[in-house]
Amino acid sequence: MLACRWALGNTVISAHRFFSRKVVFSGQTLRCLSSQTDGEVRIVQILKEKFPLASSLKVVDISGGCGAMFEIHIESSEFKGKRTVQQHQLVNQALKEEIQGMHGLRIFTDVPKS
Protein backbone atom coordinates (compact mmCIF):
# COMPACT_ATOMS: atom_id res chain seq x y z
CA MET A 1 0.00 0.00 0.00
CA LEU A 2 1.26 3.46 -0.84
CA ALA A 3 1.16 6.35 1.59
CA CYS A 4 1.54 10.08 1.17
CA ARG A 5 3.25 12.46 3.56
CA TRP A 6 3.05 16.23 3.62
CA ALA A 7 4.91 18.75 5.74
CA LEU A 8 2.84 21.69 6.90
CA GLY A 9 4.81 23.94 9.22
CA ASN A 10 5.92 21.79 12.15
CA THR A 11 3.18 19.23 11.47
CA VAL A 12 3.73 16.18 9.28
CA ILE A 13 0.58 14.74 7.78
CA SER A 14 0.44 11.10 6.77
CA ALA A 15 -2.42 9.62 4.81
CA HIS A 16 -3.15 6.37 3.07
CA ARG A 17 -3.10 6.43 -0.68
CA PHE A 18 -5.43 8.95 -2.30
CA PHE A 19 -5.87 8.78 -6.07
CA SER A 20 -5.63 12.43 -7.14
CA ARG A 21 -7.93 13.38 -4.28
CA LYS A 22 -7.74 16.57 -2.27
CA VAL A 23 -7.12 16.58 1.45
CA VAL A 24 -8.10 19.65 3.46
CA PHE A 25 -6.10 20.37 6.61
CA SER A 26 -6.30 23.60 8.64
CA GLY A 27 -7.97 25.41 5.76
CA GLN A 28 -5.25 24.46 3.27
CA THR A 29 -5.82 22.11 0.37
CA LEU A 30 -3.12 19.53 -0.26
CA ARG A 31 -2.99 17.00 -3.06
CA CYS A 32 -1.42 13.59 -3.12
CA LEU A 33 -0.64 12.31 -6.60
CA SER A 34 0.54 8.76 -6.18
CA SER A 35 0.62 5.89 -8.61
CA GLN A 36 -1.88 3.05 -8.79
CA THR A 37 -2.21 0.52 -6.00
CA ASP A 38 -1.20 -3.09 -6.58
CA GLY A 39 -4.87 -4.06 -6.66
CA GLU A 40 -5.67 -1.48 -9.34
CA VAL A 41 -2.74 -2.64 -11.47
CA ARG A 42 -3.74 -6.32 -11.12
CA ILE A 43 -7.38 -5.62 -12.07
CA VAL A 44 -6.35 -3.50 -15.06
CA GLN A 45 -4.08 -6.30 -16.32
CA ILE A 46 -6.84 -8.90 -16.00
CA LEU A 47 -9.42 -6.71 -17.75
CA LYS A 48 -7.00 -5.80 -20.56
CA GLU A 49 -6.44 -9.51 -21.20
CA LYS A 50 -10.16 -10.34 -21.05
CA PHE A 51 -11.28 -7.30 -23.07
CA PRO A 52 -8.47 -6.59 -25.57
CA LEU A 53 -10.76 -4.33 -27.62
CA ALA A 54 -11.48 -2.01 -24.68
CA SER A 55 -11.14 1.60 -25.81
CA SER A 56 -11.29 2.96 -22.28
CA LEU A 57 -10.48 1.37 -18.92
CA LYS A 58 -10.23 2.97 -15.50
CA VAL A 59 -9.91 1.17 -12.16
CA VAL A 60 -9.92 3.08 -8.87
CA ASP A 61 -9.49 1.68 -5.37
CA ILE A 62 -12.28 3.53 -3.53
CA SER A 63 -11.47 1.93 -0.18
CA GLY A 64 -8.59 4.30 0.55
CA GLY A 65 -5.95 1.97 -0.82
CA CYS A 66 -6.65 -1.20 1.17
CA GLY A 67 -8.10 -3.09 -1.82
CA ALA A 68 -11.52 -3.81 -0.32
CA MET A 69 -13.63 -1.89 -2.86
CA PHE A 70 -13.03 -0.85 -6.44
CA GLU A 71 -14.78 1.19 -9.10
CA ILE A 72 -14.37 0.06 -12.70
CA HIS A 73 -15.22 2.04 -15.84
CA ILE A 74 -14.77 0.06 -19.04
CA GLU A 75 -15.82 0.84 -22.58
CA SER A 76 -15.49 -1.95 -25.12
CA SER A 77 -16.98 -2.96 -28.46
CA GLU A 78 -17.14 -6.47 -26.98
CA PHE A 79 -20.24 -5.29 -25.07
CA LYS A 80 -22.12 -4.43 -28.26
CA GLY A 81 -25.54 -6.08 -28.42
CA LYS A 82 -25.45 -7.09 -24.75
CA ARG A 83 -27.70 -5.70 -22.04
CA THR A 84 -26.05 -3.89 -19.12
CA VAL A 85 -26.54 -6.86 -16.80
CA GLN A 86 -24.80 -9.14 -19.33
CA GLN A 87 -21.91 -6.67 -19.65
CA HIS A 88 -21.51 -6.62 -15.87
CA GLN A 89 -21.64 -10.41 -15.73
CA LEU A 90 -18.72 -10.55 -18.18
CA VAL A 91 -16.67 -8.22 -15.96
CA ASN A 92 -17.62 -10.20 -12.84
CA GLN A 93 -16.61 -13.45 -14.52
CA ALA A 94 -13.26 -11.99 -15.57
CA LEU A 95 -12.59 -10.93 -11.96
CA LYS A 96 -14.04 -14.03 -10.32
CA GLU A 97 -10.93 -14.79 -8.23
CA GLU A 98 -10.28 -11.17 -7.19
CA ILE A 99 -13.90 -10.55 -6.19
CA GLN A 100 -13.68 -13.19 -3.48
CA GLY A 101 -11.39 -10.92 -1.45
CA MET A 102 -13.35 -7.70 -2.04
CA HIS A 103 -15.97 -5.98 0.05
CA GLY A 104 -17.61 -4.31 -2.94
CA LEU A 105 -17.33 -3.50 -6.61
CA ARG A 106 -18.89 -0.75 -8.72
CA ILE A 107 -19.02 -1.50 -12.42
CA PHE A 108 -19.79 0.97 -15.20
CA THR A 109 -19.77 -0.42 -18.75
CA ASP A 110 -20.43 1.14 -22.11
CA VAL A 111 -20.05 0.55 -25.84
CA PRO A 112 -17.92 3.03 -27.84
CA LYS A 113 -20.06 5.63 -29.61
CA SER A 114 -18.52 5.22 -33.09
UniProtKB/TrEMBL annotation:
<comment type="function">
    <text>Acts as a mitochondrial iron-sulfur (Fe-S) cluster assembly factor that facilitates (Fe-S) cluster insertion into a subset of mitochondrial proteins. Probably acts together with NFU1.</text>
</comment>
<dbReference type="InterPro" id="IPR052275">
    <property type="entry name" value="Mt_Fe-S_assembly_factor"/>
</dbReference>
<dbReference type="InterPro" id="IPR036065">
    <property type="entry name" value="BolA-like_sf"/>
</dbReference>
<keyword id="KW-0496">Mitochondrion</keyword>
<dbReference type="GO" id="GO:0005759">
    <property type="term" value="C:mitochondrial matrix"/>
</dbReference>
<dbReference type="InterPro" id="IPR002634">
    <property type="entry name" value="BolA"/>
</dbReference>
<comment type="subunit">
    <text>Interacts with NFU1.</text>
</comment>
<protein>
    <recommendedName>
        <fullName>BolA-like protein 3</fullName>
    </recommendedName>
</protein>
<comment type="similarity">
    <text>Belongs to the BolA/IbaG family.</text>
</comment>
<dbReference type="Pfam" id="PF01722">
    <property type="entry name" value="BolA"/>
</dbReference>
